[in-house]
Structure formats: structure tokens, C-alpha cells
Amino acid sequence: MRILVVEDDLVTQGFIKKGLTEHGYQVEVASNGQDALFQALEMDFQLIILDRMLPKLDGLTVLNTLRSANKTLPVLILSALDSVDERVKGLREGGDDYLVKPFAFAELLARVEILLRRQPISASPQSTLIQAADLKMNLLTRQVWRAGREISLQPKEFQILRYLMEHPQQVVTRTLLFEAVWDYDFDPQTNVIDVHVARLRKKVENDDLPPILETIRGVGYRLVDKTTS
Amino acid sequence: MALVTGWLTKQRASFVWRFTLLYTALLITLIAVAFFVLYQLSVGEISRSYQQQIQFITQQQRVFNQQMSPSEYLTQFTNQAEQLTNLILAYEDKNATYGRLTSLPNHIASCPAQTTFLVDNTNDLRLYSGCIESLSNGRLLVAFDDENLYFLQTQFLRAGVLALLLTLGLGILSGRYLSTQFLSRIKHINDTAKIIQSGDLGARVTVSDRQDEFDLLAGYINRMLNQLEDSFHAVSGVTDAIAHDLRTPLGRLRLRLESHLTTLPEHPINESQLQEMLEELDHILTTFSAMLELSRLEHKQAHSHFNLVDINQVAEDVIDLIQPLAQDKQQALSFIASRPCYLQGDKTLIFRAMFNALENACKYTPSGGVIELLTTTAGFIVKDNGPGIPDEFKDQVLQRLFRLESSRTSPGYGLGFPLIKAIAQFHHGKIELKDNHPGLQVHVTLNMSHPIENKKDAVCSKS
């Protein structure tokens, strides 16, 4: 997986490159809009992390040019501009996700992984059944089973679990969960999501079954499959 | 001399003076033209008519002189000279002078050129204008009494000069009046601007009761200054708040890092310590973003796109989100929906206002408390039976970074109520804090002017 990181602040660029490389990605970097555009058009990448404000060529211009050149690869916009308008503008220009600085690297990584494994399991309309680890979910009847035993969930708990099951083994941050389940575009900045996940966990991880919802401190959650490992 | 040129230069720079000068010059030209026309129509006309008469008489006498015998002509001439009162006729041949004059002056030009001369009328010297026509046997003088016309001319000239002088005087006086009256007001505005430039933002232009153009201008300037001053205060308020609320935790973080650095060889930093520092930093960043957002909302820079928002749907989403928090504290959280449920607004902001109000209620109401969310025709109400807020603090909690615990040790940012207030105002609404006896009622009004009735007229019931 090749990722192009476009960021003019070299320290930030270095940390992103280091972090992504440690997670097994091949990373190329660019420090200005012109270089970024050249590399993105010449080379083959699976994802671009694009700073909004760049020297020589503005990030949105780069994005716009790429989209005009029929480059459909996912683009994650990084920006210090956090107003709703800026976010809307970035996404309208063809960005796939928008992350405001300062951000936690874990948040960036989680979003990168979700963008790279874009097609969730439920993408095809026919599949009404999702399976992850020893969990099974019927989207039509809204039933959930763990190891064959049915679990009864509240609507929001069901949606949270569904999102986690659609992104198995991936770190899902609180903000991602909130955006996906509540569909409001802001960061609630409280532990309220943790409370929801705790309730979900209580229902999913009962009895003698091994824990399945892993908490990654300060970041979010991951649905792990300990039964097979 | 230098004094005068200096004064002139100073006056020339003034708009009112230039205007007055131009105006006066125009008026003088107008009066001069009027006088010229008047002169031509009166004095000029009389003079021209006299000349025509002279011409006529001269021609007549020439014809008579040619056709008549000398004696016949003399008789005719004497009659004519006696009959004409407004003209004097004199005829001189080789022998004698006939008519009204004793002799013909020598310096008088031949007709049609005219010469002015004095005639001694026994005890009265009078001015006459006329010419001499040479006839076959002698010379004929025809002249008219110029005294009256001359007098008229002089009077006319005098009146003209007087009028022009008066105009000039009036122009200068009105110019002086205008400069003192109007320039003083402009000068007042200029002086105020200077005071503001020197740093006193509180200075304002005085507005009189006359409501004239200057008062309008002063009003506009004052309103602009008020807004600017508000913005300055807001900026300095934010700066102070940032200094206060961010410096303390930043300082704490700095001290912690420093102490870790100095004790590093003996006590290597461990994961939980790093985690704590990261959390502290996140807290600082959150406060910072929240304050930025608040400022932006308060100054309407976050131009969000308003849509029709189903306020009951938003309320249900908030309840869904916050219910577990309430349940963990054994609080009874209930929602009572209103009937008209559509509002023009920003869905996310309304959600946040509601969430903040409910989260506050959950946080400050003790275990086992009762919390109610009610949507109304134009907003929502959150009621709790917690400790409430004393009346003297009700205004203060709406100001940013004010927290009831003066120590600021319990978690929270002091930005919850200010954010609700900013969101309400962004929707042209307001927030009111009331007593619930016991507890607190938070009344939030959004879009006070136009709540939109549910088009289907259906009851927006609680699902």
C-alpha cells in the first residue's frame, strides 16, 4: 500500500511518515502543492494525505486537478481550518475525509485504514448477514448472535456493533463511531461514547466467552478475533 | 503680506471657503449681466432714441434746406427750433446764428459722430450731446439735453457697484458663517478621529437633535465605533480568557515535563505518566478549539447553511446519546415532544446546544434526580431537580469560562452555557435560566421570529 503524504511542516510530515511506515505502509512525501500534483499524477498511490494550505499550490487546487484528471483514489484532507464551511468545501472538492489539526496520530491511522478498506462487508445489497469474529448480525431482522447465542441490543448499540463489525480488526475512534452512528458532524469531546460502548460490551462479553471489544486507551476501540488467534 | 498669503492658503484649503468663493463669483457675474441688460434696455434705449431723432431732424432739415429758399428755410427753421423742446436746434449762416444758441461751438464733430458740450443757460450750465451738419448756406447743429441721461447713467453705475459690493460682502460673510458653523462640526469629527487614533476607543462624535446630515454621519460613525469597540473587547476578552485558562494547564504541563527531564536518569518516564501528559494536552487543545468556535459563533463567522430541522428528531438523537449517562447515575431522563417540530436552523448546532444543556443537567443533578427535555414551538427546555444556580450567578454562568466552583478543579470547560447562548443567538434566539424549585430550567429559544408549523399538521409525537 503506497501512501503520498503532502505536508509542508517537515516535523509533522516526518511523524506521519514514521508512523505510517511502522504500520507497514510505503510512504512518499511532498512538501508543496506542485510536487504533490506531479507525484500523484506520475506514480501510483492507494491514498493521499493532503494538507489544506500548501506553498506554491493550494491543497484544494491539487485535489481539484487530480479529480479532473480522473484520479479516483481516496484523499484525506488535513487542515487547521475547522469551521463547518471549510469541511464542507473540502469534501465538495472531492475529499473523502477531513481531519482537523491538531489530531492524534491514532485518529489519522484509523481513518487511513478505513479509507483504504473502503468497501465494507455490507456493501452489496444482497448481503443482509455480517460476520466478524464469532459474531453474526442480521441486518434485516436486526438480530445479533455471539457464538450462536442471541444477544438483545438497543438500536444505537446495534448500530455501534454493526460499524465495528464492518471494520473488523481496525481501530475505530470515538469520533468515527459518533459520526457513523449519530451522523452529526462534530466531536462531542466527552466520555459519552465510552459509556455506550461499555454497555454494548457488557452485553457482548458475558459469560465465559473471551473479550472481543478491545479498548485502545485515548484512541478508541477495535473488534478483535481472539477465537482464531 | 506673508500673513495674508498664509491666511489665503489656509482658507483655500477649506472646502467651504472654496465653495463660498465660487458661489460669490457666480453671483457677481449674474448681477453684472443683469445690470448690463437692464442698462441696455433703459439708458441705452433712451440714448439710441435721441440719436435716431437727431438723425431724423438732420435729414429733414437738409431736405428743407435744399428745396426751400434761404428765407423760407429760416422761417421754417425758427418755427421748428421753438417747437422742439427736448432737442436744441441752431443754424448759422454767413450773417447770423438762429435758434436756441447764440453761436455754434467750433469743436463739434460732423454728423453722425456726436460730441458732448456745455451750454450756458443764463444761470444754469447744462450738458448737451449733438453734431453739426453742413448745409449749402451754413451749418446746422442738432443736440439733445444729455444732463438727465448722464445723471441716469451715473445713478445706474453707482447702483451697480453698490450691488456688486453688497454681494461680495454677503458672500464673504456667508462663507465665514458656513466655515464657522459647518467646519466646526467637521472639525469635531476630525478631532474625535484623532482621539481614537491616539488609542482612546471610547471617544464618540456628538450628535445634535437636529437630525441633519451631519448628525446622520455622526450616528453612522458612532455605530461603527461601537461595533469596533465591541470586537476589540471581545478579542481582548478572548485573549484574557486564553491567558487565564490555557496558561495554567500549559504551565502545569511544562513543569511536569521539566521535572521529568531533570530526574530522567534516575526515574525514566513511564507510559502512564506520558498518557497523563497527553490527556492534559488534549484538554488544553479542546478548550482552545471550543473558545475559538465560541468566538466564531458569537461573531457570526461560521456561516452555516440553515435547513428545515425536525427539532423532535434532534431531541430523540440527543436522548439516545445521553440516556446511558443518566442511567448510570440512576437519573430519570424523559422527553416530551411538542407539536410543531420544524425549525429553520443548523441541525448540528441545535444538537450540540441540546446535548450541552442535558449533559450539564446530568452532571450537576445528583443520583436519582429527574431530568426532563421538552421541545417547544420555537426551541427546547431542559429541567432538572439538581442544585440549580443562585440568581446572582445566572448571568455570570452565561459568560465564557465562568464556573461556579471558583477553584476550577472539577472537570469541565466553563464553555457549556456560553456555547448554548451563542448557538441560540446564532439562530436569532436566546437562552434563559429559571428556577425549577428546586433545580434549574434552561429555556432555549431558536428562530424566535418564525417557527414553522408542521406542514402535515401532524402531532409530532414521541416515538
TrEMBL record, chain A:
Residue span(s) of domain Response regulatory: 2-116
Single Gene Ontology BP annotation: regulation of DNA-templated transcription
GO MF annotations in UniProt: phosphorelay response regulator activity; transcription cis-regulatory region binding
Segments of the chain annotated as binding DNA: 127-225
Matching CDD domains: REC_OmpR_CusR-like, trans_reg_C
Pfam families in the record: Response_reg, Trans_reg_C
Residue span(s) of domain OmpR/PhoB-type: 127-225
Keywords linked to the UniProt accession: DNA-binding, Phosphoprotein, Transcription, Transcription regulation, Two-component regulatory system
Protein origin, superkingdom: Bacteria
Cellular component terms (Gene Ontology): cytosol; protein-DNA complex
InterPro entries referenced in this protein's UniProt entry, alphabetically: CheY-like_superfamily (IPR011006), OmpR/PhoB-type_DNA-bd (IPR001867), Sig_transdc_resp-reg_receiver (IPR001789), WalR-like (IPR039420), WH-like_DNA-bd_sf (IPR036388)
Modified residues (4-aspartylphosphate): 51
Protein name: Response regulator transcription factor
